[in-house]
Design a protein that fits this description.
Layout lengths: L7 E6 L13 E6 L10 E6 L7 E7 L6 H7 L3 H15 L14 E6 L14 H16 L3 E3 L3 E2 L4 H10 L3 H18 L10 E2 L3 H16 L3 E11 L4 E3 L4 E2 L2 E2 L7 E10 L5 H6 L8 H11 L2 E11 L5 E10 L10 E4 L6 H4 L5 H11 L4 H4 L8 E9 L6 E7 L10 E4 L5 H9 L8 E2 L17 E2 L3 E2 L4 E2 L5 H15 L2 E6 L5 E2 L12 E4 L5 E3 L29 H4 E3 L6 E4 L7 H4 L2 H4 L12 H7 L2 E6 L6 H15 L9 E6 L3 E2 L3 E6 L5 E2 L6 H4 L1 E5 L4 E4 L2 E4 L6 E5 L13 H8 L1 H10 L7 E2 L2 H19 L21 H19 L3 H15 L7 H11 L4 H10 L23 E8 L2 E9 L4 H10 L1 H7 L4 E7 L3 E6 L7
Parallel strand pairs: 5-6, 5-30, 7-8, 16-18, 30-31, 32-39, 40-43
Antiparallel strand pairs: 1-2, 3-4, 9-10, 9-13, 11-12, 13-25, 14-15, 14-17, 14-24, 16-19, 17-18, 20-21, 22-23, 26-27, 26-29, 28-29, 33-34, 33-35, 33-38, 36-37, 37-38, 40-41, 42-43
Helix pairs in contact: 2-26, 4-5, 20-21, 21-22, 23-24, 23-25, 25-26
C-alpha cells in the first residue's frame, strides 16, 4: 500500500472494563486520517461480542471516497468511552443498592417492571420502552429524597425452556442461566438503575421454596383441591398441551389433532374471591379499560336458576330435573327449546336410543374445539337433537332439548333456556333448525324494532301469561317482570335467585418438567394427600436427562423413579410424590413481595419491610398480561392478606401499560396483471393484484396519504407492523447502542410519543435525539480537538446568570418536573431541547444554570449527565443530588404583546415588559421597522397608553415613508 494511504489507529486502554459483551477486550479503537485510504480500499473494523456465534457488534465502512458526515457528527459525543466507564462505576460502587436497613421516616417509592421471561432471542428495542420509563421515575424519585426500590428478576420457569430442552437435549437450567446472563448484560448496557443485589429468579430453590409454602397455605384453607377437568390431549405427541399450544384444534408444534379429555388436576379456588376481586378494582389507579377487562373476565351476573322437568318422546316425566341459569328470567315464556353442553353430566340420561349415535359423534367433534372457537359469535352454530323434551314451567308446554357446543359446561349449569326472539345466538340456531321463535318483549320505542332479528333490549312484556302456572307478567317492564318470575319460581319450587360468574377455578397443574414441584405426597396404601412440613421445603426438582413426553399422559417427572418413591415424614409410611408441576404463573404471582426481602430464609417477607414498601406504587408492563397475571397475583395477595402475611388488600396501586414499538413504516405499491402501477385503494388492489415494497426515499406524504415521488397519482400503503423475525423488522438494541449510545436509545424511546401509545421505530428519529445529545455535549464541553479527543473540564463560567437565563432554566425545570410526574416524557424532552436551543444564543454558560440543567437531564441520559457532573468538579455520583426546584419569580411572564394604533388604526404590535412606561413604549414602537414608517415625518400630538393593553399615538401630520 502506498505510504500516503495510512490510517491512524489509536488504541486506548480503559481503566474500567467495558460492559458485557465488550468487557473481554478492555480497549477501544479510534480511527482517524481515514480519507487517504478511501480511493484505494475499503476499511472495515469489526468488534465481536464474544458469544458462540461470533456475530458482529459494530462495523465502520466507507468506500469510493465518500465521507460519512453523520459519523463525524457522532464523534462529537464520545458515548463509547463514557457509557462503559459509568456503568462500571455504578456496579463497583453499588450506586443503586437499596439498603436492607433504611430510614423509614423518609417517603418510599416502589416502582416495578413486569419481570421478563429470559428467552434466547434477547431483547429487541420494544422491551426497553417500559424499562426506560420506570428508570426515569426511579432516578427522579431518588433525587427528590425518596427511598427507592427498583429491582429486576426473571420469570424463568415455563414452556419455552422445556421445548428447547426437548429439541436440543440441553437441560432447561443450562439454557435458562445462559439466557438470563444475556438479558442481564443487555439491561446493564442501557444504564438502568436496578438494585442488582435483589435479583431473583423463579427457578432458584431459595425462591420457589416460598412458592411451595404459599401453595400449602392455599391447601390448608381449602383453596387448593383436585378435580377431574378436561385438558388438551395430543395423541400424536403423547402429551397434554397448554391452551396457548393449541391453534385451531391442532398442536402448534407439528400440527397434530388435539382432543379434550378429562384428567385429574390441581385446582385453585379463585372463585371464592370473585366478589372481592371485583369490588376492590374501584380503589385502584389502573386504566379503566384494564379494570373493565377484569370485570368481564370475572363476569358477575345476577339472574335465576330455573328447573325444567325432563320428558321422553311420549311426554312422560322421566323424574329428572334440568337446571338452567339465565340472566333474563323475564323471557321464560319465550323459551322454545333448551340447550345442554356436550360435556354436561346429565347428557347420557337425556339421549334417546335413536339419537345416541349422532349425539356421540357430535360430542367427539366438539372435543376437538377450544372454548374460544366454540363461543366465537361469528361462527356458524351447530347442534343435534337429544331425543328428549322438557316442560316449560311457565307455559306447561313440552320443548325440545338440544346439544350444542356454543354452550359451555364450565359456565353456569352447563345448560340454558333458549329464547330465540331475544338472543342472537339462539335466534341463529332456531332459524337453522326450524325451531319456533316467540317474542315476549316489545320495545317501548317502536323504532327499535329488531326487523326480523333477535331483540335483546328492554321493553314491555307480551305473550307472557298462563292460568295453568298462575304466572302473569303481561304489560310489566321487563326488569320488574324478571323479579316477579324469580319470586314465582322460588314460591313454587321451580327455581331460585342466583348470582353466577364466568370466572372458573384456576387449573394449577402442568404435565411438564420445568416448573415448581408440588409439595405434597400420596400415601401408597390409602392414596391420601399429605402436605409436606415446612421443614421439608424446598422440594427441589430432580435432575433428568430425558424431558420428552411419556406418551401416556403421565408427566416427564414420572421418569424420575428414585425421586418419586419416598416416605411420609410423619408416619414413615411409603408414599409417592406428585409428578405434575406448577404453571409458570405461580412464581410471577408474588415476586414483588420477595424483592422487598430477597434473602430471608425464615419468612416469605419480613412484616416490617412489607408494611413499609407495600404496595407497589407503580407497576409497568404490557396490556397482554392485564387479565390473567394480574388477576392471579391479586388473588394470591388477598389470600396472603387474610393470613396476615401482607398488610394491604391489593398488590399494585398504580398500573401503566406501555404501548408497542412497531417496526419501521413499510411502503407498498400495487401492480395490475399487466405490470402497471395502480393506486392501492383501486378496486381489487389489495386482493387480486401483486404488491411490492418500495424504499422510503421514493415515497412522500400527500395530505393524509402516501404517494410516489415520481408519480404522485399513485397512492401507496404506509404501515408499521409489530416487530417479528418473520417480517425481518426486529431492531436489536445492541446495534443501536453500538451506533448511537445507550443514552440516545433511552432518549429516543421516550421521545417517540406518549408512553401508553404504540408507535413505529424510525432510524431518522434516533439520529435527531442523538444530535440533541451531541449539541448538549458541545455546549458544555466544547467542540473536539483536531485529533478527535476532548479537553478536560467544561466551558462554564462562574458569572452571575442573567434574568433571561434564569427564566429559561426555571421554565425548563417546571416543565420537566411536571412531565416526569405525569409520565409525559416526550414533552419533557422537548422542553430540554428548547433550553439547549436558547443556551446556544448566550455568550456565556453560567455554572449555576448548566449544573441545574445537567441534573434535569440525568434521569433521561444518565451516562452523559454523570460525565458532565464529574467534569463540573463534583466527585460523587449525580444519582442522589437534589432535583432542581422551579422558582415562581422566574416563571411569571413579564413580556406582553402591545398593539400600536396610529390615529385610531392598528398598525402593528411590539413586545414590552409589563411595567413598561408610555415613553418607553413609544420609543420601542419607533424602533420597529414597520411602525417607523407611520411615525416618520410627523409630530406626536398626543399618546394614549393603557399599560399592557394598547398604545394609541395621535399624529398631527402622519406621513408614510415610500
Amino acid at each position: 500500500m502506498q505510504a500516503q494511504a495510512r490510517a491512524q489507529i489509536h488504541v486506548q486502554k480503559h481503566a474500567a472494563p467495558l460492559p458485557s459483551p465488550w468487557r473481554h477486550y478492555g480497549v477501544s479503537l479510534r480511527v482517524t486520517n481515514v480519507k487517504p485510504l478511501l480511493p484505494f480500499c475499503r476499511l472495515r473494523i469489526c468488534c465481536f461480542n464474544g458469544n458462540s456465534h461470533g456475530s458482529e457488534r459494530s462495523s465502520i465502512s466507507d468506500e469510493k471516497g465518500e465521507h460519512n458526515v453523520e459519523k463525524q457528527q457522532r464523534a462529537a459525543y464520545p458515548f463509547g468511552e463514557i457509557e462503559p466507564r459509568w456503568q462500571h462505576y455504578w456496579e463497583e460502587h453499588r450506586t443503586f443498592r437499596t439498603a436492607d436497613e433504611i430510614d423509614t421516616s423518609k417517603p418510599k417509592f416502589y416502582i416495578l417492571d413486569m419481570f421478563p421471561y429470559p428467552s434466547g432471542a434477547g431483547l429487541h428495542v420494544g422491551h426497553p420502552l417500559g424499562y426506560t420509563a420506570t428508570d426515569i421515575l426511579a432516578r427522579y424519585k431518588r433525587m427528590k429524597g425518596f427511598n427507592v426500590l427498583h429491582p429486576m428478576g426473571w420469570d424463568a420457569f415455563g414452556l419455552p425452556a422445556e421445548q428447547y430442552a426437548i429439541q436440543t437435549g440441553t437441560h432447561p437450567k443450562v439454557t435458562t442461566l445462559k439466557n438470563i446472563e444475556r438479558f442481564r448484560s443487555q439491561l446493564k448496557s442501557l444504564g438502568f438503575s436496578y438494585d442488582w443485589d435483589r435479583e431473583i429468579s423463579t427457578t432458584e430453590p431459595e425462591y420457589y421454596k416460598w412458592t411451595q409454602w404459599i401453595f400449602l397455605q392455599l391447601l390448608k384453607r381449602g383453596l387448593a383441591y383436585q378435580a377431574e377437568v378436561p385438558v388438551n390431549w395430543c395423541p400424536a405427541l403423547g402429551t397434554v398441551l397448554a391452551n396457548e399450544e393449541v391453534v385451531n384444534g391442532v398442536s402448534e408444534r407439528g400440527g397434530y389433532p388435539v382432543v379434550r379429555k378429562p384428567m385429574r388436576q390441581w385446582m385453585l379456588k379463585i372463585t371464592a374471591y370473585a366478589d372481592r376481586l371485583l369490588e376492590d378494582l374501584d380503589e385502584l389507579d389502573w386504566p379503566e379499560s384494564i379494570k373493565e377487562m377484569q370485570r368481564n373476565w370475572i363476569g358477575r351476573s345476577e339472574g335465576a336458576e330455573l328447573e325444567f322437568s325432563v320428558l321422553d318422546l311420549n311426554g312422560n316425566d322421566q323424574g329428572l330435573k334440568l337446571v338452567v341459569f339465565t340472566t333474563r328470567p323475564d323471557t321464560i315464556f319465550g323459551a322454545t327449546y333448551l340447550v345442554v353442553a356436550p360435556e354436561h353430566d346429565s347428557l347420557p340420561s337425556l339421549v334417546s336410543e335413536p339419537q345416541r349415535t349422532s349425539v356421540e359423534e357430535y360430542i367427539d367433534q366438539s372435543s376437538k374445539k377450544s372454548e374460544l372457537e366454540r363461543t366465537d359469535l361469528q361462527k356458524e352454530k351447530t347442534g343435534v337433537f337429544s331425543g328428549s323434551y322438557a316442560r316449560n314451567p311457565a307455559t306447561g308446554e313440552a320443548i325440545p332439548i338440544w346439544v350444542a357446543d356454543y354452550v359451555l359446561g364450565s359456565y353456569g349449569t352447563g345448560a340454558i333456556m333458549a329464547v330465540p326472539a331475544h338472543d342472537s345466538r339462539d335466534y341463529e340456531f332456531a332459524v337453522k333448525y326450524n325451531i319456533p321463535v316467540c317474542g315476549v318483549v316489545a320495545p317501548e320505542d317502536t323504532s327499535c324494532s329488531s326487523g326480523g332479528q333477535a331483540y335483546s333490549g328492554e321493553g314491555i312484556m307480551i305473550n307472557s301469561s298462563s292460568a295453568a302456572s298462575g304466572l302473569d307478567i303481561n304489560g310489566l317492564p321487563n326488569k320488574e317482570a324478571a323479579l316477579k318470575v324469580t319470586d314465582w319460581a322460588e314460591s313454587t319450587g321451580h327455581g331460585k335467585k342466583k348470582v353466577n360468574y364466568k370466572l372458573r377455578d384456576w387449573l394449577f397443574a402442568r404435565q411438564r418438567y420445568w416448573g415448581e414441584p408440588f409439595p405434597v405426597i400420596y400415601l401408597d396404601d390409602t392414596g391420601d394427600v399429605i402436605p409436606l412440613p415446612d421443614s421439608e421445603l424446598p422440594l427441589t426438582l430432580p435432575e433428568l436427562d430425558d424431558f420428552t413426553p411419556t406418551g401416556t399422559g403421565e408427566p416427564p417427572l414420572s421418569k424420575a423413579t428414585n425421586w418419586i418413591k419416598t416416605v411420609d415424614p410423619a408416619s414413615g409410611k411409603p408414599a409417592t410424590r406428585e409428578t405434575s408441576t406448577m404453571p409458570q404463573w405461580a412464581g410471577s404471582c408474588w415476586y414483588y413481595l420477595r424483592f422487598m426481602d430477597p434473602t430471608n430464609s425464615r419468612a416469605l417477607v419480613d412484616k416490617s419491610k412489607e408494611m413499609y414498601w407495600g404496595p407497589v406504587d407503580i407497576y409497568v408492563g404490557g396490556a397482554e398480561h392485564s387479565v390473567l397475571h394480574l388477576l392471579y397475583a391479586r388473588f394470591w395477595h388477598k389470600v396472603l392478606f387474610d393470613i396476615g402475611v401482607v398488610s394491604t388488600k391489593e398488590p399494585f396501586q398504580c398500573l401503566i401499560n406501555q404501548g408497542l414499538i412497531l417496526g419501521e413504516v413499510e411502503y407498498t405499491i400495487c401492480r395490475d396483471p399487466e405490470g402497471q402501477l395502480i393506486s392501492i385503494d383501486s378496486p381489487g388492489a389489495a386482493s387480486e393484484f401483486s404488491l411490492e415494497r418500495v424504499p422510503e426515499e421514493k415515497v412522500m406524504k400527500s395530505g393524509d396519504s402516501f404517494v410516489l415521488k415520481d408519480n404522485p397519482s399513485i397512492r401507496v400503503i404506509g404501515r408499521a407492523h409489530k416487530m417479528s423475525k418473520s417480517r425481518g423488522n426486529v431492531v436489536n438494541p445492541d446495534d443501536v447502542v453500538s451506533e448511537y449510545g445507550a443514552d440516545s436509545l433511552r432518549l429516543y424511546e421516550m421521545f417517540m410519543g406518549p408512553l401508553r401509545d404504540s408507535k413505529p421505530w424510525s432510524s431518522s428519529g434516533i439520529e435527531g435525539v442523538h444530535r440533541f445529545l451531541s449539541r448538549t455535549w458541545r455546549l458544555i464541553v466544547s467542540s473536539p480537538l483536531p485529533d478527535g479527543s476532548f479537553k478536560d473540564g467544561t466551558v462554564v463560567t462562574d458569572e452571575k446568570p442573567t434574568l433571561e437565563q434564569l427564566r429559561s432554566l426555571h421554565k425548563c425545570i417546571a416543565k420537566v418536573s411536571e412531565e416526569i410526574q405525569e409520565t409525559r416524557f416526550n414533552t419533557g424532552i422537548s422542553a430540554m431541547m428548547e433550553f439547549i436551543n436558547a443556551a446556544y444564543k448566550w455568550d456565556k454558560q453560567p455554572r449555576s444554570i448548566i449544573e441545574s440543567f445537567v441534573l434535569l437531564l440525568s434521569p433521561y441520559a444518565p451516562h452523559m449527565a454523570e460525565e458532565l457532573w464529574s467534569r463540573l468538579g463534583h466527585p460523587a455520583s449525580i444519582a442522589y443530588e437534589s432535583f432542581p426546584e422551579a422558582q415562581a419569580q422566574y416563571l411569571e411572564e413579564t413580556l406582553v404583546v402591545l398593539p400600536i394604533q396610529i390615529n385610531g388604526k392598528t398598525r402593528g404590535t411590539i413586545q414590552v415588559e409589563k411595567t413598561c412606561t408610555s415613553d418607553e413604549a413609544l420609543r420601542l414602537a419607533s424602533l420597529d421597522e414597520k411602525l417607523a414608517r407611520y411615525l416618520a415625518g410627523g409630530t406626536v400630538k398626543k399618546s394614549i397608553y393603557v399599560p399592557g393593553k394598547i398604545l394609541n399615538v395621535i399624529m398631527d401630520k402622519p406621513k408614510v415613508a415610500r
